[in-house]
């Protein structure tokens, strides 16, 4: 009996050891495959899904004009600490920290990406709510938000602009971020997590989104706002109400393969639309246009 028990334990330990060895081999192969892959193309590693490490993706935008772009940050996902910014105007910025200066035993959660062209500080002490501060490019201040990508949910971003009809001086950027929750309404894409509007030096954010019903002739279903719908560079986000600062903003922003469309009435539009009430007798109406890149 003792011999059988000892043999059983030995076999069990061998199986566990082999499983760990196999897992280690897979992890090392995954790591080697991504060493020279850009932040934009890297696959988030599953072992970092709940940790500070991994890939973060979001928006960087001016608070005073319509300059905007996308940012990717690699926090040790492939042992390196790098960042990439791609602006809509074509400007590209690369950042890299010296990994030798990062002591993993101390588990740093704040990373300062800087070059002569600019940079930012990323705080991932709470990976579910990463914070970017002190963002700048060419000595101008910028505003930024990022979300964490995981092996199962890749963060997605759409940038854009807004302006008041008849008053182009009231304008800024209008951006949409998703944490990657897939196919929320059955039309593909990823659920929208944040609307980020930059104006007058501020970033105004909304993280609560209203569902709405599309009539029979259009979609015949309840719609959960999403980006990347129908497998394309589209968006479905109508009948939204956002409180931004002291103002209440009603807005709709949906786009399919060819045109802007409001899915509440299934009629085409020339752009997304918003109305703003500042609660002090001033109202504004304007357009929202997304970047199809």
Task: Write out key terms for the chains shown.
293 residues, mainly beta, Lipocalin, 9-stranded antiparallel beta sheet, 8-stranded antiparallel beta sheet, globular, Lipoprotein
Task: Describe the protein's architecture and organization.
- The chain has 293 residues and is mainly β.
- It folds into two domains: 52-149, Beta Barrel (Lipocalin), CATH 2.40.128; 152-293.
- 11% of the residues lie in helices and 45% in strands.
- It is built from one helix and 24 strands.
- It has one helix at residues 2-34, and strands at 54-62, 68-75, 81-87, 92-97, 110-115, 118-123, 131-137, 140-149, 156-158, 160-164, 167-178, 190-191, 194-199, 202-206, 212-214, 221-223, 226-227, 235-236, 240-244, 247-252, 260-262, 267-269, 272-277, 283-290.
- The strands form five sheets. Strands 9, 10, 11, 13, 14, 19, 20, 23 and 24 form a nine-stranded antiparallel β-sheet that branches. It has an eight-stranded antiparallel β-sheet with strand order 4-3-2-1-8-7-6-5, with no helix packed on it.
- A hairpin with a 4-residue loop joins strand 3 (81-87) and strand 4.
- The longest helix is centred in the first third of the chain and has 33 residues, at 2-34.
- The radius of gyration is 23 Å and the shape is globular.
- The N and C termini lie far apart (69 Å).
- The model is unreliable at 10-29 (pLDDT under 50).
- It comes from Ulvibacter litoralis.
- This is Lipoprotein.
């Amino acid at each position: 009996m003792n011999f059988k028990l000892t043999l059983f334990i030995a076999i069990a330990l061998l199986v566990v050891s082999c499983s760990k060895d196999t897992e280690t081999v897979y992890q090392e192969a995954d790591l080697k495959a991504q060493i020279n892959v850009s932040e934009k193309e890297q696959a988030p590693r599953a072992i970092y899904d709940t940790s500070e490490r991994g890939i973060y993706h979001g928006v960087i935008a001016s608070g005073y004009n319509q300059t905007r772009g996308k940012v990717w940050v690699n926090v040790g996902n492939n042992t390196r600490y790098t960042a990439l910014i791609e602006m809509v105007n074509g400007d590209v910025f690369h950042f890299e920290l010296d990994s030798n200066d990062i002591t993993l035993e101390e588990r740093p959660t704040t990373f300062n990406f800087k070059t002569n062209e600019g940079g930012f500080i990323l705080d991932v002490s709470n990976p579910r709510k990463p914070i970017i501060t002190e963002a700048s490019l060419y000595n101008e201040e910028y505003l930024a938000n990022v979300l964490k990508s995981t092996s199962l949910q890749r963060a997605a971003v759409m940038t854009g602009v807004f302006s008041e009809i008849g008053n182009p001086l009231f304008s800024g950027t209008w951006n949409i971020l998703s944490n990657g929750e897939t196919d929320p309404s059955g039309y593909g894409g990823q659920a929208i997590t944040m609307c980020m509007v930059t104006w007058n030096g501020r970033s105004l954010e909304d993280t609560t989104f209203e569902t709405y019903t599309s009539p029979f002739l259009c979609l015949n279903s309840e719609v959960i706002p999403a980006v990347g719908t129908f497998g394309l560079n589209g968006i479905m986000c109508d009948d939204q109400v956002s409180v931004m600062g002291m103002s209440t903003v009603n807005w709709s922003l949906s786009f399919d393969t060819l045109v802007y469309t409001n899915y509440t009435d299934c009629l085409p539009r020339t752009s997304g639309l918003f109305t703003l009430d500042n609660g002090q007798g001033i109202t504004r109406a304007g357009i929202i246009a997304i970047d199809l890149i």
